[in-house]
Structures are given as structure tokens and as C-alpha cells.
Amino acid sequence: MYNKIDVSFKLCERKILMKDKSKRIMYLGNFGGKKEVETSQVKKTVSICNYLLKKGYVVYKVNSELLKSPLFLFILIKIIYVWIRTDVAIVSLNQNGLRFGHYFFLNILTKLKFRKKLFFITIGGWLPDFIIDNPKTINYFNKFDRIYVQTQKIQDLLIDIGINNTLVMWNFRDYDFDILNKHIQKVLLNKHNNTNPIRLVFFAIIKKEKGLSIAIDAINKVNKKYKMKIYDLDIIGPVASNDYITEFNNLIENNKEVCNYKGVISEQNCIYETLSKYDSMIFPTYYKGEGFPTVIVEAFISGLPVIASDWKYNSEIVKDRVNGLIFSLDKCDLAEKLEWLQHNRNILRDMKLNCLQEAKKYHTDTILRNLVNDIENI
Question: Does pLDDT of 4 surpass 50?
Fold first, then answer.
């Protein structure tokens, strides 16, 4: 059962809303539910909320995850109640939430806007396709004061559609800069030799569209060609759904010589230390909702180059032979890139250092500065 505190109108919170002179913000987004492992969506929503609280704002959370529960009617009333009594609304609904009730939430939020500020934060790269498929929503989205998107290409697509109130908000993580210094020293001391296997990690929510089978096939092709273990692969992450468990288990069982499933990392602080032990992260995704994946930011913070498919917006983030490698979405091209890396192992050191430098761009304080500026000045 969900925590009752999350869904109750607490008297102390109501007093804060009435008395505090700071801007009062309603945040409608996915703050998580029963699952122990947080998704990228939940991580980002919680991080933004915590940042706003740290800046002194009064934030009234409305958990969109509860819209799927028997508490639906209560949450619906709560949204209207809180929106009327706050100055700013931040909305971060997924596609299903936006489609609900023939755009019910978009309709009611924009109608109750008056002189209040209304922001939309997208998580993923699905918004342009959603608006093209649902052209009636253009009028709703143009009533938002700002729509934050994860990449420049997403912004360009929205402008082409007729949405001009956008701003790029790259993905981010809140981390201690000392982590970067620690990993820089680790990279400088490490020497890549030509005899040990190159250690790859697949770090993502595990679903078919994340392309794990593409990675395994390419690794097998390279290893068989050289008749030795050039690469090995560790897989870290939760399996997304029961529908994929059997196929995933068979994939691991049939490829035990090259890959190992390591389970999940439940503690955020352990992610960077764990990833830093590898030589590169492989990310062969073809997931249609991909935007700016959180795992790429976490890889950069860990000093880990990313071998990414040229899919959606990956090439805007991962620069070929700078902070990773980009390959066409097929196992043959990936195998060729893996062969190239095998013969050019020395580049790993420079790419790792470039990743750590790049990570500075994706710190919470840097990325969310524009959000605070818009809250205060739009």
C-alpha cells in the first residue's frame, strides 16, 4: 500500500502554503510507487523536486503514479485543489497521462492557469511524435510558459511543428565533484594492455528494445574471429517486465562464455564506483521513447566511454572517438567498431578523461539554473 503521508492533505503543509512568502509550486510527476528500483523518470522528478526545496521553494508533490491506483479520484481532486492555491505548476506526465480522458489534464491545467506559471518537463524523446499523432494538443502546449526538452534536436523538431516556447534541459545528476577527481586519478594510473579482455558493461533497464542481443551477437562475432576472449560483458539492471524474463534468461544461459548478469545497483552512490571498474559502457538501444538517457550521464561521471547506437539523439551526446563510439544499428557495424577499439586500446584513456570533463556540464546546479530563472522571471 502507498504511504498515506504522500496522499493526505496534511494540516502543517496547508499552513505552509498559506503563510510562506516563497513561490508555491505544484509538481505533478512520477515520484515512484512500490518498485524498489527507481526508473530514470522517477530519479529525475525527485532530483528536480529536491533541488527546488533546497532553493527555498514550497513544493507540493502530486504523484502521477497514484493515478493508476484506487486513489485516482482523490488525486484528481488534489490536483485541482493544489493548482488553485499555488503560483507555479510543473507538469511531467508521460504519454498515457497526457492522452487520459481526451487530454483532460492538459485541458484543466491550461484553463485554470490565469496569471500563473505553467511549465512542462519532458523525460525522454517522445514529445514530437506525440504531438504529431495528437495535433489538437498544439494549442494546449503553446499555453505553457516553458517546455523543457532533453536535446537540441528535440527542440528543433518541436519548432518545426509550431511549438516555440521550448528550452533545452539536458539530463543531469546531483553528485559530488570529488568523484570526478577520484576517477581522474584512477584513469591516469590505469594502464590498458593488449592481453586482458576489454571489460564492457550493459547498464540499463533491461527490455528487448535496449538492444542487449545486438551487443552479445557483436561480441561473439569478434571473439570467434580472434579465437580468444577480446571482450567480456557484465549486465546490470532490472528486467522491465515479466514478458521479457524468459527470453532474457535464455539469452544469458546461451551466452555464458561472454556475459554475466550482475543484478541491480539499488544505491545511487554505488553506481559510479561500480561503473568505473569497466572500460566502456555498451548502449545498443533502439527504444522509440529514448531521449537523453540518465545512464549516459552516470557513465560520464564514472569516466566510462559509451559505445552507443546511432539512434534518436545519442549522437548529440556521444561524440565518436571523443567520449565514446557511435555505430549504425546493426551487429555487423558494432562488431567493426569493437574490432577497431581492440586495435586502438590506447584511446580508452583519452576518452575516459573526456567523459569526466564532459560530466561537469551535467551537474544539477548547472542544468536547473534556467528553471529557477524562469520561475522567478517569466
Answer: no
